[in-house]
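User: Predict structure, ligand zinc ion.
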Amino acid sequence: MEPLIITCAPVGAEVTLDQTPYLPHTPQRLGETARAVEEAGGSIVHVHCRNDDGTNTHGVERFRDAYREIRAQSNLIVQFSTGGAIGMTPDERASVLELRPEMATLTCGTVNFGDDVFENSFPIMRGILAKMNEFGVRPELEIFDKGHLANARRLAREGLLTFPQHIDFVLGVPGALEATVANLCDLVAGIPAGCTWSVAGIGRGQLPMAMAAIAMGGHVRVGLEDNLYYSKGKLARNEELVARVARIAREAGRPVASPDEAREILGLRARAAA
Ligand code: KMH
Ligand code: ZN
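Assistant: Predicted complex:
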């Protein structure tokens, strides 16, 4: 089977500093985390940024610092969030694309998000995609609900996107599709030909979704953005979550991709030697 790409989403926008001491909320801690995640078997880091006090920011300068720290300490594929945090404007969310990360997320539709609404209307998606195309940034299509796949196909028909692409199913968000194997199989059956896919299970859905993806030939996302716990009552470090998935994959006979192998699988340009 194809080597397993493990993405780590170490920060997110929802976890607070008083929930866990392990949130890498500064550029320096993000860099250290990236190194530990690569050593543990990760190949992509999904980046959100925080201010020193833990509040959310999508400021270009903070992302620039984070990017530099991650690059200094790892060879991971750097994937910026364009989802940001609830309440950020579409322009704010897209602003960091000017830094030309290798990848960035594109959530493919509006979705309930707990008691909030994560808004991704067609005009918002078109605006973000136009910037991705302008700066040569590869999207990862974030699919929270089945209709989001239809939205991605519509964006492709409009000429803003070409298939195949890399897809990430985010399952178990309160208000969206649950993290079940049946839902995952149904979604995978509906992806355009040639697409690669990964799954991010939220909370206690993280480990079962990872195990299903390992068996199905998909890829996996873990990290504190999606799940705070290693096991019941035990807070996780990001690299521990990555290491566990890598260990299970190897036990199952599935090799784990290095960042450069992941670049090859995803059709990203190889990074020039430093
Ligand atoms: N924080 C969520 C509202 C993404 O990074 O692209 C959106 C999110 C998706 O995390
Ligand atoms: Zn995110």
